[in-house]
Inverse folding.
């Protein structure tokens, strides 16, 4: 049976090379291995962007520029199997989210670790939206009959909730829809197997290789942004924190800084991992490795930024028009099935 794959990347800030290597590039790889009949939905969950207070004056522009990043990264938007869209342009998301929230229990929402973590760090402003956000995420997935949702492990719990909601409603309405009201996404283990198309990648901060590179990190020296000037990015790499063992090896435990640099070199140059590790093993000059990585990063950024400048607003809008028309069609079909089951429309 053909597969539906969907993923969404939040749009409220500047993306970095970790996001690119860990999330954007894997989607491009997945696209290259699509089989006939498969569909890949790539969307921006813009309604999710203000579950915590955000800067609304730049939200629209950020959404559009993040969508352009996918095109610059090589997502083939001409393909008849790829659809790009913005969540808020498909009203069915909000409507199904409401419906699902009426079948979600307070207790199961309270268990969500992301809610617990985020509400602890923003005690002043915990909104109902932050609490019920997993129901919206479930709607995002169920509307498109998705099997695979390539996301990081922080989203595992939300995915399991989505499965539970789908199964709960399928059971409830089994007499109306014996084949299932919703397609149930694959279990986490199968998601991981599917994602190993992309090796799980965790790029570390250049200034503290014990932490992951992250946009919430305030130390900009540790993070290479996709819009960094290539020369500045090179400097950040030349100043990356390493160790004093004076011998290069792939060893996250004892040489996380060096291993992070090797990983960047492998990913940025699309090289074979074991050959790169073999080549550098035992070499003593960290400066040479840094120099190679900084050249690779500068080359990557120059090419990426060039591609990005070639993506016109017109191309993006055309892509969105096509993607959103398809998304609306599929989402409305699913929503109508649900409305009929609930008694909102005549069966
Ligand atoms: P951030 O930590 O920068 O806020 P998000 O949590 O918004 O990033 O993650 C967006 C996507 O980018 C996720 O799919 C996540 O797995 C991926 N990602 C984020 N940081 C890294 C990193 N340092 N290395 C690899 N992938 C990452
Ligand atoms: N919750 C995801 C995040 O915080 C983003 C997201 C929203 C998403 N809806 C989704 C991801 C549906 C995959 C599928 O990163």
């Amino acid at each position: 049976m053909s597969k539906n794959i969907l993923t969404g990347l939040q749009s409220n800030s500047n993306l970095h090379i970790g996001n690119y290597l860990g999330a954007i590039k894997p989607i491009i790889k997945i696209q290259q291995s699509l089989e006939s009949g498969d569909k890949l939905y790539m969307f921006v969950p813009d309604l999710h962007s203000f579950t915590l207070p955000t800067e609304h004056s730049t939200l629209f522009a950020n959404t559009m520029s993040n969508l352009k990043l996918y095109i610059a990264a090589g997502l083939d938007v001409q393909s008849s199997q790829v659809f790009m869209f913005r969540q808020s342009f498909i009203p069915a998301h909000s409507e199904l989210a409401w419906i699902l929230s009426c079948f979600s229990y307070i207790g199961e929402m309270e268990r969500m670790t992301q809610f617990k973590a985020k509400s602890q760090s923003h005690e002043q402003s915990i909104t109902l939206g932050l609490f019920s956000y997993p129901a919206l995420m479930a709607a995002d997935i169920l509307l498109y009959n998705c099997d695979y949702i390539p996301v990081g492990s922080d989203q595992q719990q939300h995915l399991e909730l989505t499965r539970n909601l789908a199964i709960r409603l399928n059971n409830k309405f089994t007499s109306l829809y014996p084949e299932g009201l919703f397609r149930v996404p694959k279990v986490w283990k199968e998601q991981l197997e599917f994602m190993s198309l992309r090796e799980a990648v965790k790029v570390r901060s250049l200034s503290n290789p014990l932490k992951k590179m992250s946009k919430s990190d305030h130390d900009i020296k540790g993070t290479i942004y996709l819009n960094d000037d290539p020369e500045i990015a090179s400097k950040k790499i030349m100043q990356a924190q390493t160790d004093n063992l004076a011998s290069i090896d792939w060893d996250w435990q004892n040489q996380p800084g060096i291993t992070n640099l090797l990983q960047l070199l492998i990913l940025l140059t699309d090289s074979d991992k074991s050959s790169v590790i073999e080549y550098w093993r035992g070499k003593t000059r960290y400066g040479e490795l840094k120099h190679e990585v900084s050249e690779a990063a500068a080359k990557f950024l120059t090419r990426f930024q060039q591609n990005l400048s070639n993506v016109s607003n017109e191309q993006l809008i055309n892509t969105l028009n096509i993607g959103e028309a398809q998304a609306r069609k599929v989402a409305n079909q699913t929503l109508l099935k649900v409305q009929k089951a609930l008694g909102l429309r005549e069966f």
